[in-house]
Amino acid sequence: MPGWSTHDIPDQSGRVAVVTGANSGLGLVTARELARKGARVVLACRSEARGNAAVDRIRAELPEARVELGRLDLGDLASVRAFATGFPYERLDVLVDNAGVMALPYGTTADGFETQFGVNHLGHFALTGLLLPVLLAAPVARVVTVSSPMHALANIDMNDLNSERRYRRWIAYARSKTANLLFTHELARRAAAHGTALVAAAAHPGYAATNLQTAGPRAEGRRAAERFMGIGNRFFAQSAEAGALPVLYAATAPGVRPDSFTGPRIAMWRGAPAPSWRAPWTLDDTAGELLWAASEELTGVTYGALEA
Predict the structure, then answer these.
(1) Of 71, 129, 158, 196, which residue is most buried, by most CB within 10 angstroms?
(2) What is the CATH T-level fold of the domain 6-299, as seen in this structure?
């Protein structure tokens, strides 16, 4: 792992990958580098215009890239179901659950879930479950869920998953990122218990310069906060290319362990991929089971072959 870079990504020829939120930032870099190594990559994006622009951008750099757009709105379970139903391939080797929102003002998804919990966790929970048959059709599929060091700010509250009692944007974000790690933990446990070769792993980019930091302030017209975040991105963050390395490592490197959490080596902030610290509550079997059951009930999606 020391010094691991995109040059170390194994050949991905013959593999099929889906990357959510691939129109910009970490998702775009992840999709591009998987395509560079020969994978057929579906860029799963909410905006058709931005998704097509990302496809064109990759093709301009890599004329032989096999990339295509898949319309996916993780804040709308009908869109998630439509994406999965229309998935055109018989197997899926790599699913990167990357898309997310951060520190938004309170809002709800099309299905009435608090936006950060609904998009960051429930949308990806439903997507992964609906794609499970094609994941299990691959010899050794990987599901990589992108979390954040910010998960350490808060554990989930099983009595208030949708932050209806009190909404604090950063706590809600942290809880959604804890949910990402608990989902990975429980998916890895179930995959092993049922004797499948599926590897569920998690990764985070450290502090990487993407539009994630500025989207919330921009949505509220908080120009000072937007400028502050922009300054942080410019002077303190690492690039999206560097931030994507832990995700690419988790998705492609040989020997990635189930339920591992990969991030930047230096203080979980920047540097080459390395094992990352995670809060103890993200390894709690009971919490993982409870969140899984609640997620099934909320989304209506069950995992068939991996049901306990």
Answers:
(1) 129
(2) Rossmann fold (3.40.50)
